[in-house]
Amino acid sequence: MKPIISKDSTVYFGNECYNALNTYLSSANHSKICILVDNNTHEYCLSLFMSKIEGEYDIEVIEIEAGEIHKNIETCSGVWNALAELGMDRKSLLINLGGGVITDLGGFIACTYKRGINYINIPTSLLAMVDASVGGKTGVDLGNLKNMVGVISESEMVLIDTEYLHTLPINQMCSGFAEILKHGLIQDRQYWNTISDLSQLQLEDLDIMIYDSVVIKNNIVKKDPTEQNIRKYLNFGHTLGHAIESFYLTHPEKPTLLHGEAIAIGMIMESFLSTEVSSLTKDELEEITTIILATFSKIDIDPEDYKAIIELLVYDKKNENGNVYFVLLNTIGEAKYNCTVPEELVFKAFDYYASIQ
């Protein structure tokens, strides 16, 4: 597959990605290389990655605990200190080997350590391959508020090797599929049609699906790298999805929700809002709901929690001048941004989701 070139980075695929990596490492003359992993990718992915490196380099490994709950400044502080103790200087390289938490957090650490060192993302989850590792967004959560601290700065390269997906449990694969569905909904009706029927997809189709999804995201990001306008499309499902995810993160008595599971709920609710204040049809809403729930189990959200979740919307990063902004659909494959929605309709969106049989 041809590499996908973005503004300041390149995404490589399959075996070609390691050729690109080894060429880069042999010419870049880094003083030290550090690989950031979590306890899962250390066990299941590191040996595969190390077997692909050609040449002798001074390589260190830093491991953090897996999970969104560890995507915070405290973890960053621990890694910053570890980098300093290892003698990492401004000519060093950080390689982030992991899912969305590792690529988001690792990218932020690299961008801020000694005011910026080079980094490479090697996503090992479907979610990170199609979303988190592409586009230069880095950052961490502030308490239960998602991605509130961060910078936009692209990695030297992104390496996508679907061999790592063999290590993933099914719920993690589904979590990534939410972002693939999102790309079809906001940008490409034909792509949505292709990915909507998983029963027709073969394993070898996964590489093409990921490639096409990255193309969609990259085309948007290249036109609007700092999210001033159309990059906001990529937040479809995330206004309510992030609020739900944040609420569940801080209520351990609730079911654990992966990012994609929360975004799937958000996409259904925001599709409902699209029928109320935009031009999405009821038939399209039913189609979206059916397709999403064919992959994601419906979650019971206690009506007593609606208000607390809605109150979290004020912290959404898209907000301006005190307004809560949504990305909504005109139709499947066409979105619009900076949409305001009356609060009573947001409550109705929760009721719609609850009413689904």
Automatic annotation (TrEMBL):
<keyword id="KW-0520">NAD</keyword>
<dbReference type="GO" id="GO:0005737">
    <property type="term" value="C:cytoplasm"/>
</dbReference>
<feature type="domain" description="3-dehydroquinate synthase C-terminal">
    <location>
        <begin position="176"/>
        <end position="319"/>
    </location>
</feature>
<keyword id="KW-0456">Lyase</keyword>
<dbReference type="InterPro" id="IPR056179">
    <property type="entry name" value="DHQS_C"/>
</dbReference>
<dbReference type="InterPro" id="IPR030963">
    <property type="entry name" value="DHQ_synth_fam"/>
</dbReference>
<dbReference type="InterPro" id="IPR030960">
    <property type="entry name" value="DHQS/DOIS_N"/>
</dbReference>
<dbReference type="GO" id="GO:0046872">
    <property type="term" value="F:metal ion binding"/>
</dbReference>
<dbReference type="InterPro" id="IPR016037">
    <property type="entry name" value="DHQ_synth_AroB"/>
</dbReference>
<feature type="domain" description="3-dehydroquinate synthase N-terminal">
    <location>
        <begin position="62"/>
        <end position="173"/>
    </location>
</feature>
<dbReference type="GO" id="GO:0009423">
    <property type="term" value="P:chorismate biosynthetic process"/>
</dbReference>
<dbReference type="InterPro" id="IPR050071">
    <property type="entry name" value="Dehydroquinate_synthase"/>
</dbReference>
<dbReference type="Pfam" id="PF24621">
    <property type="entry name" value="DHQS_C"/>
</dbReference>
<dbReference type="GO" id="GO:0003856">
    <property type="term" value="F:3-dehydroquinate synthase activity"/>
</dbReference>
<dbReference type="GO" id="GO:0009073">
    <property type="term" value="P:aromatic amino acid family biosynthetic process"/>
</dbReference>
<comment type="function">
    <text>Catalyzes the conversion of 3-deoxy-D-arabino-heptulosonate 7-phosphate (DAHP) to dehydroquinate (DHQ).</text>
</comment>
<keyword id="KW-0862">Zinc</keyword>
<protein>
    <recommendedName>
        <fullName>3-dehydroquinate synthase</fullName>
        <ecNumber>4.2.3.4</ecNumber>
    </recommendedName>
</protein>
<keyword id="KW-0479">Metal-binding</keyword>
<dbReference type="GO" id="GO:0000166">
    <property type="term" value="F:nucleotide binding"/>
</dbReference>
<keyword id="KW-0547">Nucleotide-binding</keyword>
<keyword id="KW-0170">Cobalt</keyword>
<dbReference type="Pfam" id="PF01761">
    <property type="entry name" value="DHQ_synthase"/>
</dbReference>
